[in-house]
């Protein structure tokens, strides 16, 4: 019997679910023996629907880099736009995206505007730009300009919600162009 068949039989014997097996694999592959490249903000990696954070850039996991971690367990995507063609950048689309992802066992949600106002300080903007620059230098496309916006948790009507303008740290209400969106989630 080859190794994969033995492994299948063992997993079946233990009664592990697909999710338990995926979590086991992810937990075993998080640790790298190579040193991390220091970054101003911790790097957020994505595997399946789960985020995990390392204190710097692990070059062996370049393809998993999703963004960076801000204070208050807020994660910011490294570039504007959706992860895939199927994802939508509407308020409902990003809200559903947030609620389908996990970080440290917590389900995501859109951040509240007051939390973003407290978090998105000039110091954090500088750290985000520095982190993006290190990613770019390492061959990972990251936008360091912050002339875009993200959705907030507050919805007023079915087609209108609060947005946080990253370029001026102001909250706006209404519709916005989806091509300016950056995904920002809170856990």
Quick tags:
187 residues; alpha+beta; three-stranded antiparallel sheet; globular
Structure characterization notes:
The relative contact order is 0.16. The protein has helices at 3-14, 18-29, 91-99, 113-119, 122-137; strands at 37-47, 50-57, 65-70, 74-77, 102-103, 106-107, 149-157, 160-165, 170-174, 184-186. By secondary structure, it is an alpha+beta fold. A 7-stranded mixed β-sheet has the order 6-5-2-1-3-4-10. The termini are far apart. The chain folds into 2 domains: 1-30, no CATH class; 44-186, no CATH class. 30% of the residues lie in helices and 30% in strands. It has 5 helices and 10 strands, in the order ααββββαββααββββ. Strand 1 (37-47) and strand 2 (50-57) form a beta hairpin.
Mean pLDDT: 86
Order of helices and strands: HHEEEEHEEHHEEEE
Considering DSSP H and I runs of 4 or more, what fraction of the residues is helical?
25-40%
Strand content: 25-35%
How many helical elements?
Answer: 5
Structural class: alpha+beta
Write the layout of secondary structure elements.
Elements (H helix, E strand, L loop, with lengths): L2 H12 L3 H12 L7 E11 L2 E8 L7 E6 L3 E4 L13 H9 L2 E2 L2 E2 L5 H7 L2 H16 L11 E9 L2 E6 L4 E5 L9 E3 L1
Parallel strand pairs: 2-5
Antiparallel strand pairs: 1-2, 1-3, 3-4, 4-10, 5-6, 7-8, 8-9
């Amino acid at each position: 019997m080859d190794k994969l068949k033995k492994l299948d039989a063992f997993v079946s014997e233990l009664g592990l679910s697909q999710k338990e097996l995926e979590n086991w694999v992810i937990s075993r592959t998080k640790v790298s023996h190579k040193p991390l490249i220091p970054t101003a903000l911790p790097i957020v990696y994505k595997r399946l629907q789960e985020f995990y954070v390392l204190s710097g850039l692990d070059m062996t996991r370049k393809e998993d880099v999703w963004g960076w971690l801000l204070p208050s367990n807020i994660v910011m995507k490294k570039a504007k736009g959706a992860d895939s063609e199927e994802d939508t950048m509407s308020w409902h689309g990003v809200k559903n995206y947030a609620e389908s992802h996990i970080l440290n066992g917590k389900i995501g949600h859109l951040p509240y505007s007051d939390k973003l106002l407290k978090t998105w300080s000039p110091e954090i903007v500088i750290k985000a730009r520095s982190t993006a620059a290190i990613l770019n230098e390492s061959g990972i496309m990251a936008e360091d300009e912050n002339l875009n916006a993200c959705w907030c948790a507050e919805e007023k009507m079915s087609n209108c919600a609060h947005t946080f303008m990253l370029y001026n740290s102001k909250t706006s209400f209404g519709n916005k162009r989806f091509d300016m969106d950056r995904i920002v989630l809170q856990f």
